[in-house]
Amino acid sequence: MRATHFFLATLKEAPSDAEIISHKLMLRAGLIKRLAGGIYTWMPLGLRILRKVETIIREEMNRAGAIELLMPAVVPAELWQETSRWDMYGPELLRFKDRHQRDFVIGPTHEEVITDVARREIKSYRQLPLHLYQIQAKFRDEIRPRFGVMRGREFLMKDGYSFHASYEDLQREYQNMHLTYTRIFTRLGLSFRAVAADTGSIGGTGSHEFHVLADSGEDAIAFCPDSDYAANVELAEALAPVSLRAGHAEKMMKIATPGKIRCEDVAALLKAPVTRTVKAIAVMHDRQFFMLLIRGDHTLNEVKASKLPFLNPFRFASDEEVECHLGCRPGYIGPVGIRDGIPVIADRTVSQMSDFICGANEAGYHLTGVNWGRDLREPDYVFDIRNVVEGDPSPDGKGPLSICRGIEVGHIFQLRTKYSEAMKATFLDESGQSRAMEMGCYGIGVTRIVGAAIEQNHDERGIIFPHAIAPFEIAIAPVGYGKSQSVRDAANKLYAELKGAGLDVLIDDRDERPGAMFADLELIGIPHRVTIGERGLKEGTVEYQERREAVAIKVPIAEIGALVRERLGA
RNA sequence: CGGGGUGUAGCGCAGCCCGGUAGCGCGCCUGGUUUGGGACCAGGAUGUCGGAGGUUCGAAUCCUCUCACCCCGACCA
């Protein structure tokens, strides 16, 4: 591609609303333009990247035996009503009426549509298994779109759905996809990790997320450096402490702690470690008031808590409700002396504590030396309701956990028969029995991958694209293109040679000054560059530089074509 | 939705407190000089100051309403 025939739209300064580095760089490099909140135009340069990502996904999906189709983005409401998701999904489902006042949605995901396809087409176990996928624009009316393409409202997604005659076959395909995703993200050149995940609102049983590792990631991942255990912290189990509750050594005492509401402050005032304090959290399920207890330095895991059957769903109690049930405002509440009708749910860690510190249910006072059994009744329930922290024992018993952050770019689920039962997607098995199909579902955030790749690969000059998804693999930078016939000839000759070898090559024939030209080529992340100038040509050399390297190497003009082709495998 | 903030030229911003004919840098156009790391000189174009209403002789500036966007909390690829 000749730069003068292409459309580069770089910016020296990033628009001020861009928050994270990948968003800023995508805007500055002219990959995307914002049209509305969370909605972006993919400019020609950005589209080239997107297409390369798509191609890799498509190749690997096909190789794994999946078959591509394309479903409509606009879906009639009846399908969503069949599975009750019309009512369950909430406001991020974009709904509208057509001219006949019929309800439609813009699909945020396509379980209903694909299940409808399956139930119409599949009658016999002989037609199974079947895995269909598409790469399509989705729309989710996110509460808060942010980080550019990372959490857009409209985004490109690869979503695949598989149908099986047995759970065993679903598990086989699930493993197949686990492997396929690993291959895809490896080919994309990303540093990633597969982690055990919560199944969320889509429902079903087994589930893994694929995360690109990046400090700016929105998810926290707990992993064990000594084994292959990795899980979203939403899911990672906090094991019960191995040591049993120590005997009590202190008498319970009421201490004035005016103005000290946070556990850290109370601990500091009493010169005690925070790990001796207990935090009480008041929640409501319907009309029932509950008290949750976690150690002062821990945080509540709302996903775990909401999985407790008697709490599902729960919400945090208002100040008024807390006062009504405990006679005290939040900040000084605790489990001692409360009514019998208030169930106390203690985290595993809390249930093993002794001589602990908690609120006294009286403004400005805490209790110290509190002990289960002696000063208050044993907790009504003991569950794992906290987030794991760095250093907690790994659930697989192989050493302490570490925590890192990731960007979720892929997610695989075993849906089982949730949708096939709701939509009567059945088949006849070998014995002529009608059975619901086992289903799996497999998503990849195509647009998000571009953001994640940049988040992971950039420096102060701009983007450094992995070869596999770079908009161009190599750039030719002629210095003095307009003025020097010899530079022009050498550049065009190399361009023709590399193009002929099948490389994606950009020749910067804009006749820009060298500084501007280099800055642009570096900003947009082209991984290799050949610089051709009169100075070098006089001694018969050109310069070759990898985007990641600090310096260029001189190469005899006669050898540059071969060298590039060798480096880029063409 | 709750809390905080911002809307002035394509992008980044000043001006607003204290009303008086809208500015700076980058970019853009023309001409010239330049040409190995975002050049220089000269000339030029570009704004319903987010929108509506109000106060005032006069509003970017004060008041009211509205819209959009951004940031912090509940969602997900």
TrEMBL record:
InterPro entries: aa-tRNA-synt_IIb, aa-tRNA-synth_II, aa-tRNA-synth_II/BPL/LPL, Anticodon-bd, Anticodon-bd_dom_sf, Pro-tRNA-ligase_IIa, Pro-tRNA-synth_IIa_bac-type, Pro-tRNA-Synthase_IIa_type1. One of its GO terms (biological process) is prolyl-tRNA aminoacylation. The keyword Aminoacyl-tRNA synthetase applies. It is found in: Cytoplasm. Keywords: Aminoacyl-tRNA synthetase, ATP-binding, Cytoplasm, Ligase, Nucleotide-binding, Protein biosynthesis. Residues 38-466 form the Aminoacyl-transfer RNA synthetases class-II family profile domain. It catalyses: tRNA(Pro) + L-proline + ATP = L-prolyl-tRNA(Pro) + AMP + diphosphate. One of its GO terms (cellular component) is cytosol. It holds the Pfam family tRNA_edit. The keyword Aminoacyl-tRNA synthetase applies. SUPFAM superfamilies: Class II aaRS ABD-related, Class II aaRS and biotin synthetases, YbaK/ProRS associated domain. It comes from the Bacteria. Its EC number is 6.1.1.15. GO terms for molecular function: aminoacyl-tRNA deacylase activity; ATP binding; proline-tRNA ligase activity. Catalyzes the attachment of proline to tRNA(Pro) in a two-step reaction: proline is first activated by ATP to form Pro-AMP and then transferred to the acceptor end of tRNA(Pro). As ProRS can inadvertently accommodate and process non-cognate amino acids such as alanine and cysteine, to avoid such errors it has two additional distinct editing activities against alanine. One activity is designated as 'pretransfer' editing and involves the tRNA(Pro)-independent hydrolysis of activated Ala-AMP. Consists of three domains: the N-terminal catalytic domain, the editing domain and the C-terminal anticodon-binding domain. Homodimer. Belongs to the class-II aminoacyl-tRNA synthetase family. ProS type 1 subfamily. This is Proline--tRNA ligase. It comes from Candidatus Desulfobacillus denitrificans. The gene is proS.
